[in-house]
Amino acid sequence: MTSNKTIVNSWNEWDPLKHIIVGRADGTMVQAPEPAAERDWPEHGFPLGTYGLLPEEMEVRANEQLDNFVKILESRGVRVDRPTPVDFSQPVQTPDWKQGSMFGCMPPRDLLLTVGNEMIEATMSYRSRWFEYLCYRPLLEQYFKDDPNFRWEAAPKPRLSDRTYKKDWNIKFNALSKEEQEQTARDEDFITTEVEPCFDAADIGRAGKDLFIYRTATTNRAGVDWLTRHFSNHRIHMVRFLEPAGSHIDASLTLLRPGLALSSYERVPLEPRMKELFKKNDWEIVDCAEPSADGYAPLSFCSRWLSMNTLMLDEKTVCVDAKEVKQMEQLDSLGFEVIPVPFSDVNAFGGGLHCATADVYREGSCQDYFPKQIQGY
Ligand code: ARG
What's the pTM? Predict the structure, then answer.
């Protein structure tokens, strides 16, 4: 039986939100080492080469905060779906590689890219995340049954063989000074090669006709190229920031509403043309407020810039991590209604409020927010 109901529709980061996926912390791993991710946290029980479940008490607290976030969203009239975790501690393999464990399904944003009536399962570029789409299949199958216009897509699964990664890149990177590491970002020297398209969905910021794609360790040039060809009715802008070994746009550039974006002030944009494009179209890029933390939280691979990892409920309403007092004050003074959401216990599971969600439905259609384009960009 098919119905005529539109389930999937979302063109940007700020139209009125009606339906969203919120991840789960269940069974999240400090993943087994692989070329793209090697954790080395001896002070917290995970020295290089070891792996295992994140501590149970952390998982319980993270799930409490995620459940509370769901309640807040529901009280605002947003329908919430949740993924179905699989056993992430199991080893996985393809004909090309064997990987000691999977990762988790807290950050659906990393995996699912919604553009209009389409959802794409991203290629992902970690072996530990290659099978993560399975957690979302029950939802995607249901949307496909219920919504005759839903375009369910999956990008070509990358092989992620040893040819996809530069040999010993991590060892070389770790031996560099801070300045030298920054130079790798300027030189666009990341662990991934250009053998095949790779991208994480969280590297894409959506603004109607314009899609901003963050060139990172997780999204290579071939990935940008694949997305450019796939979204031939959109304008694709490759953007770069001063974030060595970086990934995911939502801790470097946050699109808040037409005409306003936040950026992490130490991660300057490396593409002057990005600034020019925003300026030409009367968009303001504001430096985000000072984050509450000054380093990485225990067992977390996400930086303090998760402070700006916010979720818009509509153009005027923004969910912010409750510990980010300065960020809340700044957004308040920019005219937003700020909803504080306690979320710090979730960060180690893969991110902040934007990472922890994936859009299913926002009202609205595809609009042009950057009508004045810049030649050759
Ligand atoms: N690389 C980012 C940082 O640490 C993490 C962004 C997390 N975003 C996400 N969608 N998982 O600043």
Answer: 0.97
Q: Residue type for 352, please?
A: G
> In terms of Cα–Cα distance, which of 83, 84, 103, 85 is closest to 32?
103
Dihedral angle sign, alpha carbons of residues 284, 308, 103, 97: positive
Catalytic, 355? Answer yes
Q: How far is the CA of 194 from the centre of ligand 1 (A)?
A: 22
Is the Cβ atom of 248 under 6 angstroms away from ligand 1?
A: yes
**How many angstroms does the Cα of residue 79 sit away from the middle of ligand 1?**
25
For residue 271 the two structure tokens come to: 């593409």
State mean pLDDT over 47-74.
97
Is pLDDT at 126 greater than 70 in this prediction?
Answer: yes
DSSP H/E element including 225: helix 221-230
248 in catalytic set: yes
Cα–Cα distances in angstroms (integers) from residue 181 to residues 178, 186, 283, 322, in the given order: 5, 9, 31, 32
For residue 3, the model assigns a pLDDT of: 61
Q: What is the pLDDT of residue 295?
A: 85
The pLDDT value recorded for residue 102 is 98
DSSP state of 139: H
CATH 3.75.10.10 fits 17-362, yes or no: yes
Best residue among 252, 302, 308 to mutate for probing ligand 1's pocket (most ligand atoms within 8 Å of CB) is 302
pLDDT in tens, 246-304: 999 999 999 999 999 999 999 999 989 999 999 999 999 999 999 999 889 899 999 99
Q: CA angle 160-162-167, nearest 5°?
A: 130
Say how many CA atoms lie within 13 Å of 51 toward its Cβ.
22
Give yes or no for a contact between 122 and 220, defined as CB atoms under 8 angstroms apart: no
Task: Give nearest CA residue, ligand 1 atom 10.
Answer: 355
Token pair in block for residue 194: 């250009």
Q: Are 92 and 131 in contact (CB under 8 A)?
A: yes
Q: Is the CB of 351 under 6 A from ligand 1?
A: yes
